[in-house]
Amino acid sequence: MDRSFFHHHEEHQRHALVPVCSSSTPRHTNWMLSDVPSDITIEIDGISLALHKFPLLSRCGRIRKLLAQHRNAENIKLELLNVPGCLDSLELAVKFCYGINFEITTTNVAQLCCISDYLEMSEEYSNENLSLRSESYLETVVCKSLEMCIEVLHQCENLLPLADELRIVGKCVDSIASKAYAEQVASSFSRLEYSSSGRLHMNKQVKCKGDWWIEDLSVLRIDMYQKVIEAIRCRGVRPESIGTSLVNYTERLLKRKPSYISPTCEEKVVIETISALLPQEKCTVPVSFLFGLLRFAVMLDCNLSCKLNLERRIGAQLDMATLDDLLIPSSKSSGETLFDVDTVHRILVIFAQHDDSEDGELGYDYDSEGSIDPPSQSALVKVAKLVDSYLAEIAPDGNLTLGKFIAVADTLPGYARVTDDGLYRAVDIYLKAHPGLSDAERKRLCNLIDFQKLSEEATSHAAQNDRLPVQAVVQVLYIEQIKLRNALCCATPEGPQKVPYPSHQVTNGQVLSGQVTPRDNYSNLRRENRELKLELTRMRMRLNDLEKGHESMKQDLHKSSSKKVMSSITKKIGRLSWFRDRSTFRGSASASECSKSFASKHTPRS
């Protein structure tokens, strides 16, 4: 194997490892004055640095005060505690004291600001000291660039709370907020254009380029990110941009699992913080993202306010959700059922109550009077279909109680469902998965269904479904009979006629017929329905025969009329050719005969 590889690997290890020395063996660096004996030892985190008094006394107020307590000692040893930035920051400060040149960058300016404050390297002790130089670089260079501010904020994460007290964090956050707003304004101006009528308008088809900073924020820790989002919101950045940033940050951060912190603990803090940072405006984040946050909140057992906040926001835009969004796994603590039905039920209640809600806590679609707009009919229909699909998905769960199933199904008003086929399917699946239900429970379950809103296929299936209670089947048969009689009335050639109906009555999902028992009523309705179906089939066959005869008559009539036209045209052409040479004579003769006839008819008789 190539020896250069091993040499490079050894050099990398030599630079990467930080030697840890005891207090008796001070650490010397290659830039110190090796020919001058050390007269002071500074210990930090178990590492000793052999240094000299004069360079430190000339610039560090803290070292000067500590040495004043050891005037008579020859070999002075000082221990520094809680040094910001630890050994790396101290080495930079010592280099500055020794006059060693190094470059101030975004990666070390925050450390220099903190260590200069810790060592009191101010103008009081030396001109153009480290504190002045680092703060000047922060204000004149870093705060002019959004990317540099983000990088410095990232470096400040390990320098808290001193970096916050020195206003390093505040300056960077304010600069990021102002520059993000300026980018948004500039991007908005670039999207302005004149229409054909000469009016100035915003071109929405052009992608907004002022949100490039969104991805850069994902490197920040959640506490720093929270400060930035709150600042840009106060500055006036669009809620859509904030929502996009929240989605991007959450997706990236939840994938990172540092070794120094429990992933579960970090994810819980992230979910609770992101939930609190969500914009008040509706539809600024996808509903699937809200459901993802809610899943994590349920799984990690986040605080109650976080869960309720997410549920309210989801309820405001539930019509945009899918079936996969509603399938929230149950937490281990409450896990009787496979999916968290209680959470979905609360979301449905919030959605259904929007029409009479006057709470202005969430700024969702306010009208002029300040109330929340109720969901539209199309939204109700979408949610009703979604709920029916959800019920069919959770119905096979053996631990799902009848009360929870009915509570979810009965949340929406009856007019929300155009057809009850989906609800009937879910009820049938639940009856099949729970064969031990009593007759009263099955009747209670079937009362959810409006059998008049079933399609023909679903009605036929329900009429033969043995899992339904007898009263429900009788009701289905009666409704089917009414539909068949109406179809027969409309199919008769004489037009609609009044057909006598049996004296059945439908009351609370049950069919009553005088004093006839439900079993007899059931058999009678089945027989009458079979007869009506047979009669309807015969009528349809007769109608088809009549339509076929009508078509054949139309074809014969068309053929006969075309033959007559051709024969008449042929005769006229023949006459014209035969009398072509006599046309003048016959024409004059005819004219004279006509004049004589006309004169004889109009001459008065004597």
UniProtKB/TrEMBL annotation:
UniProtKB keywords: Coiled coil, Ubl conjugation pathway
Sequence ranges of Polar residues compositional bias: 585-606
Biochemical pathway: Protein modification; protein ubiquitination
A Pfam family hit: NPH3
Domain BTB: 38-106
InterPro entries in the record: BTB/POZ_dom, NPH3/RPT2-like, NPH3_dom, SKP1/BTB/POZ_sf
Entry coiled-coil feature ranges: 522-556
Residue numbers spanned by region Disordered: 584-606
SUPFAM superfamilies assigned to the protein according to its UniProt record, in alphabetical order: POZ domain
Domain NPH3: start-end pairs: 211-483
PANTHER family, per database record: OS12G0117600 PROTEIN
Name of the protein: Phototropic-responsive NPH3 family protein
Organism from which the protein derives: Rhynchospora pubera
Organism lineage: Eukaryota, Viridiplantae, Streptophyta, Embryophyta, Tracheophyta
